[in-house]
Amino acid sequence: MTVRIFPLVLCLLVALVAPPAAAQSDTPAPTPGSTTIDQTVAAAFQSVIGAQLDAFQRDDWVSAFSYAAPSIQEVFGDPPGFRSMVLNGYRAVAQPMVFDFQDATVLNGRPAQVVYVVGPDGKAYRAVYFMQQQPDGSWKISGVTLFLLEGTTT
């Protein structure tokens, strides 16, 4: 299995920069230390990720950028900077041939949504979307890590 180093470093940087936001909604936050996510929360993750994917497919980078957590927005500055990063390092999630939601879970104390992705190059990946609850109770994407699934091209 190959791991992209930049996304891992970015996720670690974001984890250090962005403290967890306090939840202020009826949607329960994942319990620290648990490995399962409430179905309502999982549906919220999938809604946000799906909306960002839809924005990517419409080439609407302003909308796509709006689904990123404030810490990600701060790192990349504006939609063109975000677009450049996504198309250079995450084309598989921006232009997938297959995009299939798997389990929502907690990894290293961070809520996450796992997605099976086949990129435009035919290579299969496991994408882990790290999610961050905002003060208003909404969820934003706080990082994505792609794991190449060896021997699984289409």
Give the SSE map:
Elements: E1 2-3, H1 5-17, H2 39-57, H3 61-66, H4 70-76, H5 79-89, H6 91-94, E2 98-107, E3 110-118, E4 123-133, E5 139-153
Antiparallel strand pairs: 1-5, 2-3, 3-4, 4-5
Structural notes for this entry:
The protein has a 5-stranded antiparallel beta sheet with strand order 1-5-4-3-2. It has one domain: Nuclear Transport Factor 2, Chain: A. With 154 residues, it is an alpha+beta fold. It has helices spanning 5-17, 39-57, 61-66, 70-76, 79-89, 91-94, and strands spanning 2-3, 98-107, 110-118, 123-133, 139-153. Mean pLDDT is 83; it is low at 1-32. Helix content is 39%, strand content 31%.
Quick overview:
The chain has helices spanning 5-17, 39-57, 61-66, 70-76, 79-89, 91-94; strands at 2-3, 98-107, 110-118, 123-133, 139-153.
The geometry reads as globular
Give start-end ranges of low-pLDDT stretches: 1-32
**Second-tier CATH architecture:** Roll
Order of helices and strands: EHHHHHHEEEE
What is the CATH topology? Nuclear Transport Factor 2, Chain: A
**In which order are the strands of the major sheet placed?**
1-5-4-3-2
Question: What key attributes describe this structure?
Answer:
single chain, 154 residues, alpha+beta, Nuclear Transport Factor 2, Chain: A, five-stranded antiparallel sheet, 6 helices, 5 strands, 31% strand, globular, disordered N terminus
